[in-house]
Amino acid sequence: MPTRPSSSAKKKPSSARKPVLLGLVVSLAAGLLGLVSYRATAPGGPASDTPAAVTATAQEPELRRELARLARRDAGDKLAQGRADAPVVLIEYADFQCGYCGKFARDTEPELVKRYVGDGILRIEWRNFPLFGEASEAAARASWAAGQQDRFWAFHRAAYAEGAKEKGFGRDRLRALAQQAGVKDLGRFERDAGSAAAAEAVRADREQAYGIGATSTPSFLINGRPVAGAQPTAVFTQAIEAAAAEEANVGHAGDPAK
User: Fold this and answer.
1) Tens-place pLDDT, residues 90-122
2) Residue 55 lies in a domain
3) How many domains does the chain have?
4) Inter-residue contact 175 to 190 (CB < 8 Å)
């Protein structure tokens, strides 16, 4: 984190102070997402008022804006789906060996895609966040490699299918998943999965997750608001619709809703 300038230092232009501001924002985000993560994983499971966790940053508009800027909105992003200019971006930090990530992938994500992605309201951006050792790392790199042939989401579905995790993520199994996902050039897939580019892409995603304070999977940002864990679908729909309404208000009024 950048060091804080002394009181005797001359005032710098806002562009020079931006890294300091971002550092402070990340520190605040770490605490907030850590709190949300604790509430989501506390003994006894998620509390009955889990939707409140979604609005944990409601009074920190600058923080939310900075976190929302983590969305890449790159039309060429192989690990994303939905319009690059969608009003709401959900960033998902997940591990292919995470059972709760699989639950979200099977039970909730298809509903969000059906309800919001097709209508241009929502964009989903994946971030590989391997936490469970070498197999998680290998699966993350393999997913990136499948994406280079435009088969990331098909690989994602195959890897999160019921019972898939129990079969492991060894080299032969990853190749089989790629084949199941429709990856055409399996030789290229294996080369890409073992490449420095794959390692760097996974590293960057993981560092971003740690940077915002994520300590467990799945973790999410919805237009800068943190959501931790495979919460009920209603939690996500509420957050998405609230974010979409806020963006519509920005468009009409010119200023963010307070």
Assistant:
1) 999 999 999 999 999 999 999 999 999 999 999
2) yes
3) 1
4) yes
- Considering the domain boundaries, does residue 203 fall inside one? yes
What is residue 33's predicted lDDT score, i.e. its pLDDT? Answer: 52
User: Which residue type sits at 97?
Assistant: Q
Measured distance CA(94)–CA(209) in Å, rounded = 9
Q: Name the token pair of 56.
A: 């944990």
**99-102: long-range contacts, CB 8 A cutoff, minimum separation 24:** 99/165, 100/217, 100/218, 100/229, 100/230, 101/160, 101/217, 101/218, 101/230, 102/160, 102/162, 102/164, 102/165
The answer to whether residues 93 and 226 touch, using CB atoms and an 8 Å cutoff, is no
Model-level pTM?
A: 0.78
Q: Bridge partners of 219?
A: 93, 228
The residues of the chain scoring below 70 in pLDDT are 1-59, 251-258
Instruction: Give burial (CB, 10 Å; 0-12/13-18/19+) of 19.
Output: exposed
